[in-house]
Write a structure and sequence with these properties.
single chain, Hormone receptor fold, two-stranded antiparallel sheet, 4 strands
């Protein structure tokens, strides 16, 4: 997979490479080649720190594959809706833009990680409590 060459401690490095390799070339190629020429009202392309969203006509749903910088995802898609007024659909009356990335989440992975850190914190807490008890009893 593409993301394997960016494995490292810094997630922002993966995201930066994603933007450089996916978003920027997509935008410039489409405009230079004249493949897409939008005029009038539309939701413009953007990167929301999750995925690159293409120009989308009002009333349509934008669909993009899950970002490759998420190493636990092999397939799936994210969705965003372009409202009739040419702005991305928002969550209720907030400024947050709605998106559905449920296909890009691995709930089993998160449950496993939650169990691991719960056990780790519990062992740490009991070790600390035991050491304080021993320290106070030897005093």
């Amino acid at each position: 997979m593409i993301f394997q060459k960016y494995i490292g401690p810094d997630m922002f490095l993966w995201i930066r490479h994603y933007v450089v390799e996916v978003c920027a070339p997509l935008s410039s190629l489409l405009v230079i080649a004249g493949i897409i020429t939008f005029s009038g009202v539309f939701c413009n392309r953007t990167f929301d720190l999750y995925a690159c969203w293409p120009d989308t006509f009002p009333g349509n749903k934008a669909t993009v594959p899950c970002p490759w910088y998420l190493p636990w995802i092999d397939s799936g898609k994210s969705y965003r809706v372009c409202a009739i007024d040419g702005h991305w659909l928002r969550v209720g009356n907030s400024s947050l833009i709605w998106k559905d990335h449920s296909e890009c989440e691995d709930m089993e992975l998160w449950k496993t990680l939650q169990m691991i850190y719960t056990i780790g914190y519990s062992l740490s807490f009991f070790s600390l409590a035991l050491s304080i008890f021993i320290l106070l009893s030897l005093r």
